[in-house]
């Protein structure tokens, strides 16, 4: 894939230091997943090799992208947070993260939700991961109506 550059980001309140920081203006990135709603509007997940995934939004067919990454906590050094998302329309999306190396069970994973195109995000209650001992790999996130949805997670128990 060819890296794509981000346009200048409008001034906004920056997330706390330990949160995934939005890309600086002009940063090139690689799109790993794209969901176009029509010829102009779409969402993407991507980033830089071996760094945390970002959530991106376009209104011009992908010529430019806005980094709308939720305020997810950064991965510790040497790890990479991978995102999966469900993008319902131009305003509504859900995103969750996991550690992509070794897939350890996170202490308190959440599902992020936006209803304003990623300008603001709300975290769900922490997901119940009690009893999970091996790995945690979310791979399907789907919503059907309002807040009703599913998160399918491979937990690596038994014979998988």
Mean pLDDT: 84
Order of helices and strands: EEEEEEEEEEE
Number of helices: 0
C-alpha-based Rg, rounded: 16 Å
- Reading side by side through the largest sheet, how are the strands ordered? 1-2-3-4-5
List keywords for this structure.
0% helix; disordered N terminus; four-stranded antiparallel β-sheet; five-stranded antiparallel β-sheet; single chain; 160 residues; mainly beta
Protein described:
The protein has about 160 residues and is mainly β. Helix content is about 0%, strand content about 40%. It contains no helices and 11 strands. It has a 5-stranded antiparallel sheet, with no helix packed on it. A 4-stranded antiparallel sheet has the order 6-7-8-9, with no helix packed on it. The N and C termini lie far apart (about 30 Å). The N terminus is likely disordered.
What's the topology here?
Layout: E1 4-5, E2 28-36, E3 42-47, E4 54-58, E5 66-67, E6 81-87, E7 93-99, E8 111-114, E9 122-123, E10 137-145, E11 148-154
Antiparallel strand pairs: 1-2, 2-3, 3-4, 4-5, 6-7, 7-8, 8-9, 10-11
């Amino acid at each position: 894939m060819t890296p794509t550059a981000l346009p200048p980001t409008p001034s906004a309140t920056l997330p706390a230091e330990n949160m995934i920081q939005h890309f600086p203006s002009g940063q090139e990135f690689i799109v790993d997943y794209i969901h176009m709603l029509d010829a102009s509007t779409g969402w993407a997940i991507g980033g830089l090799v071996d760094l945390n995934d970002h959530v991106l939004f376009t209104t011009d067919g992908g010529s430019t992208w806005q980094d709308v990454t939720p305020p997810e906590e950064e991965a510790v050094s040497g790890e990479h947070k991978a995102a999966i998302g469900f993008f319902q329309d131009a305003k509504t999306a859900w995103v969750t993260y996991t550690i992509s190396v070794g897939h350890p069970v996170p202490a308190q994973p959440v599902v992020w939700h936006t209803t304003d195109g990623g300008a603001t995000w709300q975290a769900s209650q922490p997901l119940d991961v009690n009893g999970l001992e091996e790995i945690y790999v979310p791979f399907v996130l789907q919503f059907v109506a309002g807040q009703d949805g599913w998160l399918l997670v491979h937990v690596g128990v038994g014979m998988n």
